[in-house]
Amino acid sequence: MASGAQLLESAHNVQSLFARCDSFDSLERSALEQILEFIRADAAIVISRLSGLENKSVVLPKATLGVDLELMQEYVETYHSDDPVTRFANTLSKRPVKKDRCSVFRLSDTCQEDLLRSSPYYKNFLGATGINDILVFSLPIDQSGDEHLIMGVHRIGDERKFDPDDLSRAKLIAPVIGGSLMRIALQERIAAQSTALSVLNSWNLASSALVIFDRKSNIVDAYGLAFDDEQVARAHLRSTCRKFIRSGLSNLAAGLDDNVSISGARTKIEFERKGVDEDSTFYLATCTPTKHRAMQKKLDQWGLTRREKQVAEGLLEGGRNADISNALGITVKTVENHMSSIFSKVGVACRTELIAAIVTRASNRSN
Questions:
Q1: Mean pLDDT of the chain
Q2: Cα separation of 63 and 188, whole Å?
Q3: How many whole angstroms separate alpha carbon 85 and alpha carbon 98?
Q4: pTM, whole model, 2 decimals?
Q5: Which of 334, 331, 355, 332 is closest to 343 using CA atoms?
Q6: Who's near 352: CB < 8 A, 6+ residues apart?
């Protein structure tokens, strides 16, 4: 048994390693091995748990050591919703305690042993993998408790349980472990949001684009929109769509809301629910350049059709009839016909007067 001085030195070494980690990758490469030695465990995993729609949750693996990747995938896809550890962690995150507190508990704290061993989760997954006991560090990431990090360390293949001494060891290092996990998670979130904002700012669209979601906020299709960083942009569009679906609203303009991570300096996002019944429900996200928003309001007031708006926008971008024709995939003659209809609705006689009418009145509205 380690002396008090040796225990404190080991705890210091673990905490120092965690404090130096700047990503979940670096955590996986070094710090997890040290914590397994300190807690006397065989494997470790770090996951992010997100509360989803209809009280369902999503689990994202962040770092693992000594865990079979195929089993990990099986857990994520099939079994995580039945895991008493994640359910208990979610309950803790909702309690009125300090939100930055790192909770430490054992598998035996989450449910009765006989109930666990008779559950399908134990029979089909936990027992089958040889995991005998789990000790958990749980940390809420946001004030709502909708997202939290869970680091579980496992004892595998024998009857050893985590005893009060192991729990004391874990609680000794929990403040630094929790602070390090929080810092890494927030750095990852900030980096992802910064990338998403950069993508949105680079869109600089000449006209609106549409993104279509299904009822589970999965992107079904996109029109008129090229993702420079597809993975990040899609992730943040989905995140905003989930918030919209949760709100139960029919319409939501999210472009200038600082609480919505999809907001961009030059792009506005508007969500709208479509469909006549639940089975046919889908959601539209309209991405509109913010620099054109005042102009869009004026075009709406004139009663222009969608195609006429696109022609007018092409004109404002300096396009000739041939340029607008190529951009919209229509003939020059069709562009000319649309232009004549626009002149009639706006009450002008030529392109110059149309530009002056749009720019002048749109500028007045924005001031």
A1: 75
A2: 13
A3: 20
A4: 0.56
A5: 355
A6: none
